Amino acid sequence: MHSQVISDIETVVGAYGKSTISELDDLMLLNRKETKYVFPFGRFGEVLNLLDSSYRILDIDWIRIFSYSNQYFDTDDFQLYTDHHNGKRNRFKVRHRHYLDTGAKYFEIKYKTNKKRTIKYRYRKPGLENIITRKGRILIGDLMGLDPGKLIPKTYVKYQRITLIDISGKEKVTFDFNLSFQNENCRRELPGLVIAEVKQQAYSRGSVFMRTMHDIKIYKIRISKYCLGTISTYQGMKYNNFKEKILTINKICYGDNGKFKLPG
After folding, report:
1. Euclidean distance between the first and final Cα of the chain, in Å?
2. d(CA 112, CA 83)
3. pLDDT (0 to 100) of residue 257
4. What is the model's pTM?
5. Which residue of 57, 90, 143, 151 shows the fewest CB atoms closer than 10 Å?
6. How far apart are the C-alpha atoms of 174 and 64, rounded to whole Å?
7. How confident is the model at residue 3 (pLDDT cuts 50, 70, 90)?
């Protein structure tokens, strides 16, 4: 079934109008509102079919489905994860992002403000893994008030992504799927899950994507791929504030009778 859905998705995205990387750069949205959704992989083709008249798809050298690898950093005692779990108003994620199809690599800090806006700071970086460059260490100290020497590599999150840009050029929508999480001792996958996210300068219910999700009964959820990866690959993580979300994801991936897969 999975391979059939992939084939259907490739057919659907092939029919979309094309958006270029320069158009995406014009819509960087480094200071934005984010709204996320999750749904079963089996509904992916249905969702894409409903959006094709209102969005164009990112296309780089005939590639429309892209592969990503994110390396997340945290303190030895998972301070950044704990801030997310506890709902701290001003919180951060620190990562290296590798665009596997183009080879581009970036250092990024994502800052979620107490106004529920996401601000992303990023710069292109050399290819060294596990090492935060001097520029990154300065950013960490200035933005986060944290000793950058305390941050160590914790979790790899890998996935494929489709990016849509609405025809008015005001928002973009990403779909992440084929997710896997890995650390030095463990690798886990989330089969059958799609994480969709609409990114806007200002929150707008007028979004075609958001209206479509409502119409087909796919609902909003606050979720972090880093937190999911940490829960699923490290034993003993506190996750009671995420339990309802994990149960929702477990049901999507494994069905009503599926064994509780996360964490452990």
Report:
1. 27
2. 11
3. 55
4. 0.94
5. 90
6. 12
7. low
Counting every residue, how long is the chain?
A: 264
Residue at 139: amino acid letter:
L
**pLDDT-derived band of residue 107, with 50, 70 and 90 as boundaries?**
very high
The model's pLDDT over 131-181, given as tens digits with 9 standing for 90+, comes to 999 999 999 999 999 999 999 999 999 999 999 999 998 999 999 999 999
Token pair, residue 216, equals 């087909």
Which residue, 161, 165, 121, is CA-closest to 142?
121
Which fold is adopted by the domain 2-254?
Answer: Hypothetical Protein Pfu-838710-001 (2.40.320)
Tokens of 135: 């520029």
State how far the Cα of 119 lies from the Cα of 100, in Å rounded to an integer. Answer: 24
pLDDT in the model for residue 88? 95
- Point out which residues pair with 164 in neighbouring strands: 57, 173
SS3 track for the chain: CHHHHHHHHHHHHHCCEEECHHHHHHCCCCEEEEEEEEEEHHHHHHHHHHHCCCEEEECECCECCEEEEEEEEECCCCHHHHHHHCCCCCEEEEEEEEECCCCCEEEEEEEECCCCCEEEEEEECCCCCCCCCHHHHHHHHHHHCCCHHHCEEEEEEEEEEEEEEECCCCEEEEEEEEEEEECCCCEEEEEEEEEEEEEECCCCCCCHHHHHHHHCCCCECCCCHHHHHHHHHCCCCCCHHHHHHHHHHHHHHHCCCCCCCCCC
